[in-house]
Write a structure and sequence with these properties.
Elements lengths: L8 H10 L21 H30 L10 H41 L8 H39 L2 E3 L5 E4 L3 H35 L6 H45 L11 H34 L3 H22 L15 H29 L4 H25 L4 H8 L5 H14 L1 H32 L2 H23 L5 H43 L12 H41 L13 H9 L14 H15 L1 H17 L2 H38 L2 H5 L11 H41 L1 H6 L10
Antiparallel strand pairs: 1-2
Helix pairs in contact: 2-5, 2-8, 3-4, 3-7, 3-18, 4-5, 4-6, 4-7, 4-14, 5-6, 5-7, 5-8, 5-14, 6-7, 6-16, 6-18, 6-19, 6-22, 7-8, 7-13, 7-14, 7-15, 7-18, 7-22, 8-9, 8-13, 8-14, 9-10, 10-13, 10-15, 11-12, 11-20, 12-20, 12-22, 13-15, 14-15, 15-20, 15-22, 16-18, 16-19, ...
Length: 788
């Protein structure tokens, strides 16, 4: 038609891949249809199961949420104070999300505009490349943010209902004396897990509908085949990663700033209980459990979930391999839904003396059932897709890898095992030895975890190459609905325990039940972090392999001894340490503001007085630390809103630097030095990031449960016993317990801020590189602006 031939060689590269990238490089005869040519029926065959699975997950979410809303609240069981404090937690959580999303919306719009401009400069596939990439980016960001919002809303509804389920209605004798309640451990477990299930299945549902739906829209567009559509679909993963990073960092800073402030001033200095309502930071602390471990973890695993699907489909060599990750994810939804029905327990709830193994079995039997059903459905999928038994073995390896890593993490972080007990034992000689022992436990925990990951990667690579590693990540994450439900259960149970402690009318028997749920939640939270790290490593490696392929890099140029690759590896290995440093420093700064505010309210706020006009907040703190009952007319309510506002403002402010640094680092290397150096940077970042993430998460979890072990074995109780003259009866126990509290405080940003955020750093850098792969490769023949 007289149109000149397009100049950019990017188009030629894509046409080569679109015409049969894996067909041994054979040229196709003129007039034959390329294997990856657009075909509407084939596109639906690939994506329809995932779309149906996503819709099923969302329907299941709506049903579960409706049943949760029918559960009794505190008011229904005669505990209105539980609802009051629960409403304060929910208001604080929503205020944080609104402030965070206000800033993130500006960031997403600006970055989307940059993507649209960059991808519209050259006619790569169609004239709408920029618009389509931006559409995918916006969709991924919106769905990731929506998953966090919905999960947070349900978790803050579930905490009050879990407390109410544990308490039940009061039972009175013939004289009207309260003799107990109708609540039970199984009732509380059922309600808390129901709230966690909403988080798990909303992530899976939105992820599948968004990813598969976006693929269908792109693949049906004129001029785009499956391969080109998958290249643009990487923008969806980039949008999800961007939101996940900021949600994880900001949520982690919020929760640990409030937690450190509440612990140091409340427990160590004032000697009051962890969730005493007289502590001004206690509401912010409970809000933080939700913004960090619900919204943050949900966004993290949403990113891993869609990233593994995109990576596997991008590395596929034929249609059946493209379809497999979508089909497997749909099977995982069905398996996870069935698995949730098996969660229950017959344990009575004896607080920290409960049989933690029996409680874990209440959740594990659900995940194991889901895994068994998934393996059966996965085998059917592989058979229908032409006998893909090599890929099936990789899926089996991925699923087993996730379970083994969870058990390894449980061993190093549960107070039933030697590592945590060894940390608690070091408390006899002070906080320094507790800190040293905890660091040692965290470092040595890297050994078995990395060995399992290495074996899984080598095994999958031997069977199916890079695609095998990618499909193993899909297998590990396929039953994410129930896996994330067990993880999100943790903060709901933690909040329920806090609410039970805040209401002085709730008897000790109910607190034993909530303590049992909390003990289980601590373990599931720790194992969930290990699972998230393992899935992040496999997903990042798969995205790295996809980037290498999209950038058309010659494998012979990627030797470890190549100075460009080696320099990139050194630079990449440094990045997790810098990222962890920034987030740790941010927690320290934010926590300092909380500490100053709590101290000020304890000592310098004469306006905080009781109804009698005399009793101050400091007086109430003294009575609470001595275990004295506080009459209602002498009780003082602290200004909790001030601490919530400080945590919100500081966390949103401090999230900017780590987030910007994570996005700019791969762009800086890719544009200036080229994709060869960037491959080294990504490899170094994954290797270093995995080690630091495992060490920090497990060390923090071990420190936390060492403190909990002090509560279980009576050390905490003995530390408060006083003689007739007011002196401590067991001063050594006080020193012991305080040392473990300090260790827990050091570990807080380890396990809930820096460690988990490194997962997203690895994945974000890899998916960002994949999105810009063709641009990096086009700059001076892949040598970057410096022409090195």
């Amino acid at each position: 038609r007289g149109r000149p031939q397009p100049k950019p060689r990017l188009r030629a590269h894509r046409l080569v891949r679109a015409s049969g990238r894996a067909a041994a490089g054979a040229a196709q005869p003129a007039g034959t249809m390329a294997p990856f040519a657009r075909n509407d029926k084939t596109i639906l065959e690939i994506a329809l199961p995932a779309l149906v699975g996503g819709v099923l997950a969302l329907v299941f979410t709506a049903y579960t949420y409706a049943t949760l809303k029918r559960e009794p609240t505190g008011k229904d069981v005669g505990r209105p104070l539980v609802d009051k404090y629960g409403a304060m937690i929910k208001d604080g959580a929503m205020a944080f999300l609104k402030e965070e999303y206000k800033w993130l919306s500006v960031f997403v719009v600006l970055l989307g505009g940059i993507l649209c401009a960059l991808f519209s400069v050259e006619d790569q596939h169609t004239k709408l490349d920029g618009v389509l990439t931006t559409f995918a980016f916006f969709l991924g960001a919106i769905l990731s943010a929506s998953a966090g919002w919905l999960g947070m809303m349900v978790a803050t509804d579930g905490n009050t209902r879990t407390t109410a389920a544990c308490a039940g209605k009061e039972v009175k004798d013939s004289q009207g004396k309260v003799t107990g309640g109708t609540g039970s451990l199984n009732d509380g477990l059922r309600v808390a897990f129901k709230a966690g299930s909403v988080m798990g299945f909303v992530v899976v549902g939105l992820g599948l509908v968004g990813c598969a739906g976006c693929f269908c829209i792109l693949a049906m567009h004129q001029g785009l085949g499956k391969t080109e559509s998958l290249q643009i679909l990487a923008g969806f993963g980039f949008g999800a990663s961007s939101i996940a990073l900021f949600a994880r960092v900001a949520g982690g800073i919020y929760t640990k700033a409030a937690d450190v402030g509440a612990d140091l001033v409340g427990k160590v200095e004032a000697g009051i209980d962890e969730d005493d309502p007289h502590n001004p930071a206690v509401i912010a602390d409970n809000v933080g459990d939700n913004v960090g471990d619900v919204a943050g973890m949900g966004a993290d695993l949403f990113e891993s979930y869609v990233g593994s699907i995109i990576a596997a489909a991008t590395l596929a060599k034929r249609d059946n391999e493209i379809a497999l990750p979508f089909w497997l994810s749909a099977c995982g939804v069905v398996a996870a839904m069935i698995g949730t029905m098996a969660v229950s327990t017959n344990e009575k709830g004896e607080g920290w003396n409960s049989n933690l193994g029996a409680l874990m079995w209440a959740l594990e039997k659900g995940t194991m059932l889901a895994g068994a059903i998934f393996l059966g459905l996965g085998a059917a999928c592989c058979h229908l897709l032409g006998g893909m038994w090599g890929a099936y073995i990789c899926v089996l390896i991925g699923l087993a890898c996730g379970m083994i890593i969870g058990k390894i993490t449980e061993y190093f972080t549960s107070f039933d095992f030697a590592p945590v007990k060894s940390i608690k034992a070091r408390g006899a000689t002070g906080p320094a030895t507790v800190t040293i022992q905890g660091l040692g436990v965290g470092m040595i925990s890297c050994v078995p975890t990395i060995v399992v990951l290495v074996c899984a990667i080598l095994g999958c690579a031997a069977i199916k190459g890079e695609y095998g590693v990618a499909i193993a990540a899909v297998g590990m994450l396929a039953t994410l609905g129930i896996t994330l439900a067990t993880d999100a259960y943790g903060p709901v149970a933690d909040n329920a325990g806090g609410l039970a402690e805040m209401d002085p009318a709730i008897p000790d028997e109910v607190r034993c039940i909530t303590d049992s749920l909390d003990a289980l939640g601590n373990t599931t939270a720790a194992t969930g972090k290990g699972f998230a790290i393992g899935s992040a490593v496999l997903t990042s490696l798969s995205l790295l392999a996809a980037f290498k392929e999209q950038a058309q890099l010659d494998v012979s140029l990627l030797a470890v001894t190549d100075p460009y690759v080696l320099s990139g590896m050194l630079f990449g290995a440094m990045l997790p340490y810098m990222f962890a440093a920034l987030t740790m420093i941010s927690v320290g700064k934010a926590a300092a503001e909380i500490i100053m505010e709590v101290r000020d309210q304890f000592h310098n706020r004469p306006d905080l007085v009781a109804q009698d006009g005399k009793t101050t907040l400091k007086d109430c703190i003294i009575m609470a630390s001595n275990g004295e009952p506080i009459p209602p007319h002498m009780d003082v309510i602290p200004d909790s809103n001030k601490c919530v506002a400080i945590s919100t403002k500081s966390s949103v402010r401090e999230m900017i630097a780590p987030g910007a640094y994570a996005i700019l680092a791969p762009l800086f290397v890719g544009f200036l030095v080229g994709p060869r150096c960037l491959v080294g940077m990504l490899a170094g970042g994954i290797g270093s990031g995995a080690m630091v993430a495992i060490m920090m998460s497990n060390a923090g979890g071990a420190w936390d449960n060492a403190k909990k072990y002090c509560e279980k074995d009576g050390t905490k109780g003995l530390s408060k016993v006083k003689n007739a003259d007011g002196s401590l009866a067991h001063p050594m126990k006080k020193t012991w317990y305080d040392a473990c509290v300090v260790g827990d405080t050091v570990g807080d940003p380890f396990k809930d801020t820096s460690g988990p955020a490194l997962n997203i750093l690895m994945k974000l850098m890899a998916i960002l590189s994949l999105v810009f792969a063709q641009y990096f490769e086009s700059i001076n023949g892949g040598k970057g602006l410096f022409k090195l």
